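Now for a typical sample entry:
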Amino acid sequence: MELSQLASVPITDCHTHFGGEDLDAIDTMLDSLTSGRIDKACILVSSFPGRPNANPEGLFAKAKHPDRVYLFPGLDYSAVARDVDHRLTHSLAEQVDRIAAMGGDGIKMLNGKPNYRKVSGLALDSVIYDDYFARLEESGFPVLWHVNDPEEFWDP
């Protein structure tokens, strides 16, 4: 391919965050991307134990612009919390199926990032993930998993 031909190659911004109270911001964001000749965006939703995530906003963006938005929602860690009524939660494994059914294109995980790992207390190989990883493997559902910060980031 000649360099001049690259101008016609579709571009997807594969690492975009979207959330907050202004749902119309998705239109502004996509307009901005269009002005930079970017065709599509992949919204990654960060999730962390003890904090709400922006999955609803991501689902809204995907529903409003299904032809331009890919979505990798985050997990709802209330499923592994101790002080929660578990009649109202879904296991991490169940969330794989629910995210896929809602139109998610994969799942975003941040627990391999040292600061998230240290604060959450959840090891990358914690047994809480066993059924979840088994479900991902059997379904082939994609995961974007942050696992590779430099060694010095892990030094206490």
Observations:
- The beta strands are 12-16, 40-44, 69-72, 107-109, 143-145.
- The chain has a mean pLDDT of 88.
